[in-house]
Amino acid sequence: MTLIRAPAVERAAPAAPRAYLPALVTAALFTFLFARPALLLLRDWWSNPEAGHGLLLAPVALWLAWKRGLLKEFQPAPVLGALLIVAAVLLRTTADLAAELFTLRASLVLAGVGLIVYFRGARQALAWWLPIALLVLSIPLPELVTSTLALPLQFKASALGTKLLEWRHVPVALAGNIIQIPGHQLFVTEACSGLRSLNALLALSVLMGGLWLTSWLSRLLLVLVAIPIAVLINGVRVFLTGFLVYFVDPKLGEGFMHVTEGWLLFLVSLVLTGAAAFGFRVLERAVAARRARGEQHASA
Question: Percentage of the chain surpassing pLDDT 90?
Answer without folding.
Answer: 33
